[in-house]
Write a structure and sequence with these properties.
alpha/beta; Rossmann fold; 5-stranded parallel β-sheet; 5 helices
């Protein structure tokens, strides 16, 4: 099965690293440098929502939490699994992600790209939360 994955991070090296991992496995990847770019894309009616969005928290301009709040408030990306992919591992950040109905939380510093890839596929394929 081929999945559509959006990667949102201001770190170009990491974006490229993760994009290659997903593309080599046959998945469709779109990369964004920040929350504003992501929201602009999601707001286009003709754009089919991705299967997953991997969202960094700390970015210039609009951060990940702001983008996630806007996605939830505007009802964007329905059915999309949203996974926080950040170096921010504080309990308060993880709790806030849960409150905003994030589907997963991966701490970049403790996960190699193959683990991020595997966790993303597990999250996409998991049954939707009720």
């Amino acid at each position: 099965m081929t999945y559509r994955v959006y990667l949102v991070d201001d770190d170009r090296f990491l974006l490229d690293l993760y994009a290659v991992k997903f593309k080599n496995a046959g998945h469709e990847v779109t990369v964004f440098n920040g929350g504003e770019e992501l929201l602009a894309s999601l707001r286009k009616d003709e754009v089919k929502a991705p299967d997953a969005i991997l969202l960094d928290l700390i970015m210039p301009g609009m951060g990940g939490f702001e983008a996630l709040e806007a996605i939830r408030k505007e009802g964007l990306a329905k059915g999309t699994k949203i996974i926080i992919l950040s170096n921010q591992g504080q309990d308060s950040d993880i709790e806030r992600a849960k409150q905003l109905s994030a589907d997963g939380y991966i701490i970049k510093a403790s996960a190699i790209p193959s683990e991020v890839f595997a966790e993303t596929l597990r999250t996409i394929e998991a049954p939707a939360k009720q």
